[in-house]
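Please describe our next protein:
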Amino acid sequence: MVSSTSPAPVITWTDPKRRAYLQALIVPALPFAAGGLVALTGWNLFWWFGPMLVFGLMPLLDQVFGLDTANPPEALTKQLDDDRWYRWCTYLYIPLQFASLVWAARLWGQGDLSLLSSLGLAITVGCVAGIAINTAHELGHKRPTLEQWLAKVSLAQTAYGHFFIEHNRGHHQKVSTPEDPASSRFGESFWAFLPRTVVGSLRSGLHLERERAGRAGRSFWSIRNDVLNAWAMTVVLFGALIVAFGVSIVPWLVIQAVFGFSLLEVVNYIEHYGLLRAQKDNGRYERCQPEHSWNASNVASNLVLYQLQRHSDHHAFPTRRYQTLRHFDDVPQLPTGYAGMIVVATIPPLWRRIMDQRVLDHYDGDLSRINVHPRARRRIESRAQAAA
């Protein structure tokens, strides 16, 4: 008897970006590149090569190379997930990240750089540290124990180990609601958002880990506390660097760490600005959908950021690996990639001019559907009353 069932069609597809993801490794090499350019040209300006590339060249590349809206075939999702090439593209970031930090610490410790050159190097290293949080973000969402530990290792440079807990168990539960410290509100400037999210995320991470310890019947003060053991990695890392290169490097370690986690927070500011999940009658919020994140499919910056900018798909399906994240046409779209939007976010009038109307258009001007900052709401309502 011959079966009438036809064999499944064979899908042949090659990821055109497969090898291109290695471009992300340019980032942890930035301090080395800065030193090489200084040696080649004699111009100390190149100690600032990190921000020059990230905030100057990268926005231009996003415009030149445009958007990549193609998605991999859904039938190949598991095959792509199992392809270890993509994992090694993230794993390799970490040794390069720490090699560049050690190299920079040695230069600071030698004391041969001017104050301005040392600051430029610290900001360049901070670019590495900030984008390393994105590497930790990709790894921390995955189930294998190795990847979760590598995520915490990568966070050590910025002393932001609590992100490992707060992001996965806090932000992803409360995203695009007024309760989330990492979701920016309509009318809230980045400079107002920054202290709110730094303090709020720290408190959230500690609270979540205290709750977890309580449920497990163990003390908060335990090596199994994922906030404390992540912070311990920072203590060991910074302690070893100070012993090796002297206490004079402490200010530069602090500067690079603060700049690094500020990069994370400005990206948080961009990703959910003004977007709001509807609240049900029982007080709970609707399930997070692709429409609750701002999306950007700019190919140049997405290669460097492991497709973080396909953020709509990431929040709707958090365990998807970066190589399988999809572009959606019908979700809020940023006018350009994160590199350009970070610059815009630091200039509040320019940010409001570019983004506020996009939020209003997305919700048809209905403020009740927008995550509005309380002061902005009062200002808008006052203007409406005055106009009436």
About this structure: The mean pLDDT is 94.
